[in-house]
Amino acid sequence: MLELYHAAGSVCAQKVRLALALKGVAWTDHLMNLDESSQYAPDYLKLNPKAVVPTLVHDGRVVRESTVICEYIEDVFPEPSLRPSDPHARAEMRRWAKIPDDEIHAACGIISQAGLLRQGRLANPKPYYDRIAKDPNRKRADRNRRMFESGFNDPDAKTGLFVHVRLLKDMHGAFADGRPWLVGDRMTLADVGIVPYINRLHVSGLAPMWADKPGIGNWFARIKSMPAYREAFEQYIPRYGNEPVGEGVWPEVKPVLDAGETEI
Q: How confident is the model at residue 70 (pLDDT cuts 50, 70, 90)?
């Protein structure tokens, strides 16, 4: 039995849902509402003491961390393969899959708090402050409070933007030779790992960040056309999973990018 504890808007959960959809694997759905603090429920903390999603439970055994979960899914359900057979290509796949863990995920959280998520919470901030108060990771809670209160005026939010700029430059370089995927000639865990973060920029109204990089736009459109994308993203948040809802974010972000003062 395969069970997934996840949240609709979590980029990490989207990554795992996409891997499962591409495999055509059936699983038991445990959808959690993070705004209602269900990740802090005692039963869930036993599965995931970090109070984060997703968590996979396979025949009673717990697997945590989305990158690890995707590799586990590949090991248990090897067809259709999402790993290249060539060792060097496989190493490249893992390099791309590692990027979110190294820097993009934290940067995504920062700019999401400063932009898209902040916009939705400004009208009624109390529930969000209540949620922050329950977060056992006080460093994360303090950062999220700053992002909510300062938006893109916060220096960390500016740095988070330029982390994404660097990712987009790397992707542009990968597609420069006309290849359709980040590694090789077919979709791999490299693409699975990166696409939730590009989707988050897209729904935040930040697609202009790659307007001059057509390879990224073509790659993203190719993935969005897949049934697996609809299962992993649109099924859980019909509009948010596919269409920009952060229309007011780009006017705040563009001057920061134009200034380039915190470019890294």
A: very high
